[in-house]
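Inverse folding, one chain.
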């Protein structure tokens, strides 16, 4: 946990293509939670959308899921990643080409848009060795 995260990637997922699908091997997720507060998913989704709408983002929610899930591109850093909201947490899902500056920039904008601290946890699972 940290209140000043570096968003350094402990591993990196890989993307595998077949003739009909794209599959990811491994995952790296940064979980951002309001520190010491319970905030509903609807409130967090509204906050996230306000931050994304302020730019420099292009984003879309093109999945039909029972939770908010966006593919986000930061035009300033060139990073693309996924963002979900669930169980009172904003999750930044790293894609194979995602770099730390884009993740850190979204975190900084979320912090600037609120009056509380955020807790950041990182988990990496089943990522292939580099």
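Residues assigned per position:
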């Amino acid at each position: 946990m940290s209140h000043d995260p570096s968003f350094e990637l402990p591993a990196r997922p890989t993307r595998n293509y077949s003739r009909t699908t794209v599959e990811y091997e491994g995952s790296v997720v940064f979980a951002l939670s309001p520190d010491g507060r319970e905030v509903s998913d609807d409130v967090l989704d509204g906050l996230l959308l306000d931050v994304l709408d302020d730019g420099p983002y292009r984003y879309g929610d093109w999945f039909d899921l029972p939770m908010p899930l966006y593919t986000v591109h930061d035009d300033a850093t060139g990073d693309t990643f996924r963002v979900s909201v669930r169980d009172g947490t904003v999750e930044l899902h790293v894609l194979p080409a995602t770099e730390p500056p884009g993740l850190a920039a979204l975190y900084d904008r979320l912090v600037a848009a609120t009056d509380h601290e955020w807790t950041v946890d990182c988990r990496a699972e089943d990522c292939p060795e580099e």
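The longest helix spans residues 41-54. The radius of gyration is 14 Å.
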